[in-house]
Write a structure and sequence with these properties.
The chain is elongated. The chain is 49% helix and 17% strand. A 5-stranded mixed β-sheet has the order 3-2-1-4-5. The termini are far apart.
Length: 185
């Protein structure tokens, strides 16, 4: 499975591509950051993120896109920018018919480090080990994007089984009900 991970942000949008399957060695195919100027108009910044996303999608042809789920922060302005960048990534993937998965930061940290409370340095160290890199990707947004892709590769099989189980439970049973017998005393 080839996954493009996206750590959304207006100034720095981390992007990383990882290929592999759960239980086997993973391979990093690319990592980087789409940058936009902080002083630019929001519309211009979103267009720059879209262009960057499209280039990565064209170059790496992922099978799916994993995006960090936006969570509430104290700074509403930061949340809005992150949500807008996230929406651009989801739009670009959906336009191509690619499945999009959202993972929370704690989900990603737990998958990669074993602790949902790991800090950026711990995530970078584990990404470096898991992908057999010489050094942690810089900036941290790039390492976070790779961590998202790794998390999705490892969690996708279980998520798929859960979705199948849920879908089959929602279908009506084809087994006819047992006949009711009247018992007379």
């Amino acid at each position: 499975m080839r996954v493009l991970g996206v750590d959304p942000g207006l100034t720095r949008c981390g992007i990383g591509v990882v290929e592999g399957v759960a239980g086997r060695a993973l391979t990093m195919l690319g990592v980087g950051v789409v940058r936009t100027p902080a002083g630019a108009d929001i519309g211009e910044r979103l267009v720059l993120i879209e262009r960057g996303m499209e280039q990565w999608l064209d170059e790496h042809r992922p099978e799916c896109v994993a995006v960090e789920r936006v969570f509430s922060q104290h700074n509403v302005r930061t949340v809005m920018g992150t949500a807008q960048a996230s929406a651009v990534a989801m739009l670009c993937a959906s336009r191509r018919g690619l499945p999009v998965a959202l993972h929370t930061p704690s989900e990603v940290k737990a998958a990669v480090t074993g602790s949902g409370r790991a800090d950026k340095a711990q995530v970078g160290t584990m990404v470096t080990r898991l992908l057999r890199l010489d050094a942690p990707p810089k900036p941290a947004d790039a390492a976070d994007a790779l961590a998202l892709a790794i998390c999705h590769i490892w969690r996708a099989p279980a998520l798929g089984r859960l979705q199948q189980a849920h879908a089959s439970a929602a279908r009506p049973s084809r087994i006819p009900p047992a006949p009711v017998r009247k018992v007379t005393p």
